[in-house]
């Protein structure tokens, strides 16, 4: 502690306004620096307490703290919460009518606001910049600052215009905050926001109370149900699904099975969304099934689990979504079911999706990192922390791979069998097929489709009877994840990649993760 007047002001404000005893982690250092007029870039995991890092300087320094946030839907809640604590807070965004906006503007100009929330698009308007020029500003806070990064997963063009703040108000300290930053994103934030002299505060991204688990997907809804019943009965949590349709279906399924669940996605009308969100915040033990439209900025401390029924598009996304669990520091679970179909589907989405070649390459590399996390035989937490460029333990003791270390096996021969089946079909028949048909051929199954195409005549027919179907799916999935096999076209047919040849030519060994039979925690719960 450095002591001094400003610091005790900050601490007094923490006690008096927010009712907390002490600062957490980096908060005090950040607040001291900003209160003293310095710029700061703050990387802190979700739930780390970023809000106080700008709210307290806004209260301690003279003038209004201007907070730029993309989360328009949450501004009302944030402002209400601050007002309840006696902070004079307001917002200006597109949800307001002319009169409401005028009132806010007048309060700002009269110096009657401690904190003013603004959507980034407003700062592209000269009218807004003029307004700000006519008032007194204590600090600019740029929340969700990773939105400025074009290589990130959450890019918002409006953020690019925010460098104007430093140019027009060189004497007002700026603080950029994010829960998501690899080294590259971190650098982009600093460059694009024009904050070369900012001090950087990087908190640990470890969330020790979250147990990370990724299980092989078989019957996802049923697996989810037993996970919830066995480990999280009566707990509040979020279930993420990729599509609106599966959000609806999953919520329905849970309700039919005695778990109170509501859907949340962008296709629902605003009223329903708001109702479900506020029920989630207020009630105990409600499950929200949602697309990723749900959760950004939601501050519910006792979310006990976050479940993924579909693969997130990036590790950043995964970390942010799972980070919504256990903000109160109590044990929580990040559970995901992941399977072959996820890999096929995501690869297809990238190929068939919009965007130029660079965009696709970026998306593919995000996906590769996510797949590496799913397929790793190493500690998941260590893998995550390393991804974010942070120091990592060898083993954390609180993830599935630590609790039940997966076996790996030499899958070279199995890989060769898959790849040569793909090659045979293409060379001898000029055909391409999806994983299902390839596996049926390997297993020597005379299905209607096998007969129809005479695939029982291929020399590779039945050469894979040593493995079960689920194991073959695991092999194909891991080959796709490792880039030794690729999918193509709208049917997700399998094709070779540049590196497939090295496997066929026996130049490289393929190490594969053995598919666990059951989830490790379920085993632990049964005392085995
Ligand atoms: P973030 O924006 O980093 O996700 P928040 O600012 O929403 O995190 O804070 C997460 C939770 O932690 C909130 O409920 C907040 O009130 C609480 N919190 C933050 N700082 C402290 C502190 N110093 N002492 C106690 N609780 C805190
Ligand atoms: Zn671990």
UniProtKB/TrEMBL annotation:
GO terms for molecular function: 3'-5' DNA helicase activity; ATP binding; DNA binding; four-way junction helicase activity; hydrolase activity; metal ion binding. Belongs to the helicase family. RecQ subfamily. The gene is recQ. Residues 220-374 form the Helicase C-terminal domain. Its EC number is 5.6.2.4. The keyword Nucleotide-binding applies. It catalyses: Couples ATP hydrolysis with the unwinding of duplex DNA by translocating in the 3'-5' direction. GO terms for cellular component: bacterial nucleoid; cytoplasm; replisome. Keywords: ATP-binding, DNA damage, DNA recombination, DNA repair, DNA-binding, Helicase, Hydrolase, Isomerase, Metal-binding, Nucleotide-binding, Zinc. It is an enzyme of class 5 (isomerase). Its cofactor is Mg(2+); Zn(2+). One of its GO terms (biological process) is DNA recombination. Residues 31-199 form the Helicase ATP-binding domain. This is DNA helicase RecQ.
